[in-house]
Design goal:
This protein starts with a strand and ends with a helix. The strands form 2 sheets. A 6-stranded mixed sheet has the order 2-3-1-4-11-5. Strands 8-7-9-6-10 form a 5-stranded mixed sheet. Helix 4 links the parallel strand 7 and strand 8. It is about 35% helix and about 30% strand. By secondary structure, it is α/β, with parallel strands linked by helices. The longest helix has 21 residues. The protein contains 8 helices and 11 strands. The structure holds 1-O-pyrophosphono-5-O-phosphono-alpha-D-ribofuranose (PRP). 1-O-pyrophosphono-5-O-phosphono-alpha-D-ribofuranose (PRP) binds next to strand 9 and helix 6.
């Protein structure tokens, strides 16, 4: 029997979908499905201990080694650039990072562009590659509100179905990056429990491929 793997999952719908795959891959933990508010679940037989972490915090647990592996959105990885290994694209939680704004938006290069976002690093990198001067307005949610009420000219945000933009009279103007959930690993722990991590990664990758083929 190998070492116990500590796995940080993002609390919420994506995390539950990811757990379904891990369960099918043989890393089940039935206690996790019980309706309660516990945050840690363990199944010694399967060699796993799961943590429910806030999605943006998953890379922090993994980077610091409190979790050996975890699942985080590419958006969070691009924004915080944690020092972790990115092992696998789970092809789940698919969406894209976009610049969006009013349909009649025309960029006026004589002015600093005001960009509202939850992802200041992604926005800064995107515009600095275009040598475009911007003023970042960091918000924590309901980003679509900003250009409507004149707080910003555009937003940098996640677009999944496009419904939120549409219902608020906004349009995606540019795609910055495709986003999906990624399996990440702590670099030092990968040296110690690499066999266990690779075994899990291989089984999960096979299931992800199967699902891709049937959808
Ligand atoms: C995300 C994102 C958009 C919306 C996109 O918001 O910030 O607002 O989902 O989804 P859609 O394209 O399918 O409409 P989230 O629900 O995470 O809430 P918040 O950013 O407002 O906190």
């Amino acid at each position: 029997m190998g070492q116990m793997l500590n796995i940080a999952l993002p609390k919420g719908r994506l995390g539950e979908k990811v757990y379904d795959i891990f369960e099918a891959a043989g890393y089940d933990c039935p206690a996790l499905l019980e309706p309660n508010r516990r945050l840690i679940f363990e199944n010694e037989r399967a060699g796993v201990r799961y943590f429910w972490a806030k999605p943006t915090d998953v890379p922090i647990y993994v980077e610091r080694g409190a979790a050996d592996i975890g699942v985080a959105g590419k958006d969070i990885l691009l924004e915080y650039a944690p020092d972790v290994y990115e092992l696998l694209d789970l092809h789940m939680g698919r969406c894209r990072m976009c610049v969006a704004g009013p349909a009649d938006f025309r960029d006026d290069y004589a002015r600093t562009l005001r960009v509202a976002t939850k992802f200041p690093n992604i926005a800064r990198r995107h515009y600095s590659a275009q040598s475009r001067q911007i003023d970042i307005i960091k918000l924590n949610g309901s980003i679509e509100l900003a250009p409507i009420v004149g707080l910003s000219d555009v937003i940098v945000d996640i677009v999944e179905t496009g419904k939120t933009l549409e219902e608020n009279g906004l349009l995606p103007l540019e795609t910055i990056a495709p986003i999906s959930a990624r399996l990440i690993a702590n670099k030092a722990r990968y040296k110690f429990v690499g066999d266990e991590i690779n075994a899990l990664c291989t089984r999960v990758a096979a299931l992800v491929r199967d699902r891709e083929e049937t959808t």
